[in-house]
Amino acid sequence: MASRIPLLYSPKVLELFRNPKNQGRLEDANATALVGSLACGDMIAIYLKINEETQVIEKATFESYGCAANIAAASILTDMVKGKTLEEAWKIDWRIISDELGGLPAVKFHCGALAVGALRRAIRAFFSGKARPEWLPKELTFEEKQALEEEKLMEMLSKKIKAAEK
Predict the structure, then answer these.
(1) Cα 153 to Cα 164: distance, rounded to the nearest angstrom
(2) Among 45, 76, 83, 88, which residue's CB has the most CB atoms within a 10 Å radius?
(3) Is the model's pLDDT at 34 over the cut of 50?
């Protein structure tokens, strides 16, 4: 018989899980991204309204399917990026998200990485078809790679499950 030990979440994580901020689709977004997989249970959609001239994030919202840490990470991230330039927002990493949440259990660090991966994917989408600014790296960052790895893993597992069912 397997036993499960409940995860100890900080009061901030629990508060944002119960009362997430900036949740929902942003109809006038001009940069969006979706990361994760419904198959694993962690998915985040990020919506940004960016001022084209100043490149300042005016609005940020999210939709999330996942655990308390996933929802809290996306919620706090959207709060943190409002009013920041894209370059400033790009500098936020999963450790900053974890710190702002009062810490995450080690098995939930990927939730912070997933939220940041969604933000960075949305920023890259904003610059699609435009000149890439010097501060935007050509190579994918750790958080972007983490999001891709989760997506690829879930796709692979989904295929194996479908093949086993036949």
Answers:
(1) 17
(2) 76
(3) yes
3-state helix, strand, coil in the chain (%, to 5): 50, 15, 35
Full residue range of the structural domain in which residue 151 is found? 11-165
pLDDT (0 to 100) of residue 156: 79
In angstroms, rounded to a whole number, what is the distance separating the alpha carbons of residues 61 and 36?
17
Are 62 and 74 spatial neighbours (Cβ–Cβ below 8 Å)?
yes
The tokens 């400033």 sit on which residue? 88
- Let me know if residue 161 belongs to a domain: yes
Overall pTM surpassing 0.85 (yes/no): yes
What are the angstrom distances between the C-alpha of 31 and each of 34, 57, 121, 136, 157?
11, 10, 9, 15, 30
What digits encode the pLDDT tens for the residues 65-119? 888 999 999 999 999 999 999 999 999 999 999 999 999 998 888 899 999 999 9
Question: Would you say 74 and 112 are in contact if contact means Cβ atoms under 8 Å apart?
Answer: no
Which residues are designated catalytic? Answer: 40, 111
Question: Torsion angle of alpha carbons 86, 89, 93, 98, nearest 10°?
Answer: -150
Check whether 158 has a pLDDT greater than 80: no
